[in-house]
Each structure stands twice: as structure tokens, then as C-alpha cells.
Amino acid sequence: MTSLMTNTSSMVALQTLRSINSNLDQTNNRVSTGLRVNSASDNAAYWSIATTTRSDNGALGAVKDSLGLAKSSVDTVNTGLDTVRTALQKVKEKLITAASPDADRAKLQTEIGSLLGALKNNAESTVISGSNWLSVDSSGANYNATKAVVASFSRTGDSVQVDTIDIDTSKFKLLDSNATVHTAVDAAVTTSSATYATAKTTAETAYTTASTTATTAYDTAIGTADTTFAGSAMDAAAVAARDTAYATATNTRNAAVATADTAKTTALDGAVLALKNSLGASGTNTLGILDKSRVAATDNGTATVSSIMDIDISSLTSSQTDLDKIANYTSIVDSALTDLTDASTSLGSTASRIESQTNFVQALQDANNRAIGALVDANMEEESTKLKALQTQQQLAVQSLGIANSSSQSVLSLFRG
Length: 417
Hints:
Blueprint: H1 8-33, H2 44-98, H3 105-125, E1 127-128, E2 131-132, E3 135-136, E4 146-156, E5 159-168, E6 175-176, H4 179-230, H5 236-281, E7 294-297, E8 303-306, H6 320-376, H7 380-406
Parallel strand pairs: 3-6
Antiparallel strand pairs: 1-2, 4-5, 7-8
Helix pairs in contact: 1-7, 2-3, 2-6, 4-5
Subcellular location: Secreted; Bacterial flagellum
Protein name: Flagellin
Keywords: Bacterial flagellum, Cell projection, Cilium, Flagellum, Secreted
């Protein structure tokens, strides 16, 4: 039955065309955006997960930027330490030259002073983003030796956590202008040096007294042996008795001198240890590698207290005491070089950790991007095929609608005469 009021075929064709157009619009949207889930209405669960993961990826990007800045800072500090170590090595070489009897120590001090000035300038010029990790003032209200670098971002349910890599700059700072500590160290140097000098004099006096006593006893024993031998028959037995007396006297003297020498060495070692402990208690170990007071002592008991920045050989002569002082300066510089090497090693480990963490964060971002893609990305091959099919279906639906609409025209032929 054909009805003029209700065209069922046209209605079906129109409904089909609407469905095809809706699917075609959806497919066109996926092809143009590359996403099969572009809004919450497409798939609320997937869209929510993808949106949260994108947010986390943004946070990881900020973490990676922070790590990159930290790596740059560590590299800058390492460069500063390398420059200082090279200059300090030259200072050590000048001191070794100064140990020569005919060295011009005044001129050598001019060169050393120039190198020490360069050390200070290098430390003060190693600035990273307005901050200096090598030349500091630990008395400042806002000073913090620990530099916390954002290293990771993680999410567990609704809880997020930000972790850091802590860099302790006190391990490699070169200069610290903390006036309070410097004043305490200077006072300790004066007091403890005087105490050491007294202990050294006491130990040397005790050694001299014991050595003199042993020598006097030896001379007496030898004299007695000679007198006994002169009054004897001077036969083989007398000669053997004299030689035995000689040997006993020599062994007794040597043992007494050795005991006195051991006592002197023990006393001097104890005095040097007390000197170091006194300086440590004054806070010198909280200062920088270049301005902390160090103690060095030769085997004969000559001790020297000095920081790297206070080395001065301009007035030293070729006396044994002054040569010992030069040797102590060399030991002090060598100790500072060891500290610089340790500092660079520590920073190198930190740089490796930062680089490793950067690679890990990048891997996390890549994994998140893959997860997002798996949830919301459109399969372009599938969508392309579907697009072509829907376009064909659309054309057929339009033709079907046209046929359905034209069916009512056939009714007019019934009324033609």
C-alpha cells in the first residue's frame, strides 16, 4: 500500500542515512585528530586515565628539566674544581723547587701568591644560576649546604610523591667566609701552637737529658773496664772480660738512647695529635678546602699550621727548621689536592646518578606515551578503510532515499487520463 501521508520507505532510508552520517562524522574526527578517544563522551574511563597520565608526563617533563639544570650545575662545579686542582698542583711544584738550598724563595712566593689569587678568583667565579657552591658564607641566614634536586615524580592511587637527590656542597666547597669560625680557628692556632711548642721543648729536653745520662753512664762503664783491665794480668781472660764490659756498656747506652728516642717520638706524635684535635674542635673542618687550617709535621718534630691561602715562604732561609717548614707546606698542599680529588670523585658520582635518573625519567615518559596511545590513539589503517566504506554507504543511502521519495510520484500516474 502506498500512502501519501506516511512514506515508510523514505523514513527508513532517512534513518539509515543519519546513522551512516553519524558514523562518518565520528570516523572523520578520528582521522583528522588521530584519536579514537578525544573527549570524555567518547569513552569516559579511557579519557580519564589518559588525561591523568598526560598530567603525570608533564610533571615528569618538569623533573627532567630540573635534572638537566642540576647536571649543568654539577658540570660547572667540576670544571671549577679541575681548574683549582691544576693551579694547586703548580703551587706544590713551586714548593718543591723552594726546598733547593739556592732557591730564590721571594720570587717563588710571588708566583705562589699569584696562583693562590687565581685559586680564589676561580672559586668566586664558579657561579651557577646566581648561586656559588665553591665560595660560600655559612653564617648567612639563608645558607643551606644541601642542594635538593627534584629527581622523580610518582603516583600511587590519589597520592603523589616527589623525591630528590641531595647534594652536600660542604664536601667540596673551597672557601667559607664565616667570620665567627675563622676567629675561633685563629685563636685555636695561637693557643695550640704555643702548647705544641712547649710539648716539643719538653720532649726534646727529656731526650737530651736521657741521652746525656746514658752517655755519661757509658763513659763511666768504659773507664771502669779500662781501669780493671790495666790492673789485670792482661791475659786472654782479662781481654775477654774487658770486651764483655765494653759490649754491655754499649748495649746499655744504645737501649737507653733508643728508649729516650721512642719516648720523644711518642710525645711529639701526641702533641701533633693534640694540635690537630684542638683545631678540629675550633671548627676549622667546617671551612673550605682552601681556607681550613691544616697541620703537618716532619719526623724530627717540626710542626706547621697553615691553610692553603696562608702559605708564605718569602722569608724562609736554608736552615733545617725553615726547610722543614717548606716540607710541611708541601704536605699541606698535597693533603688539599687529595681533598680536591675526593670532591671531584663525589661530584662525578652525583653527575652519573643524575644522568642515570634523567634516562630513567625519559623511559617513564616514553612508557606513559605508549600507554596513552594504546588507550586513545586511532588505528589509522582501520579508520581509513572504514571511512571509504562509510562514504560508499552514504552514497548508496542517498540514492536509496531518492528512490523512496520518488515512489509517491508514481501515484500521480494513476490519475492521468
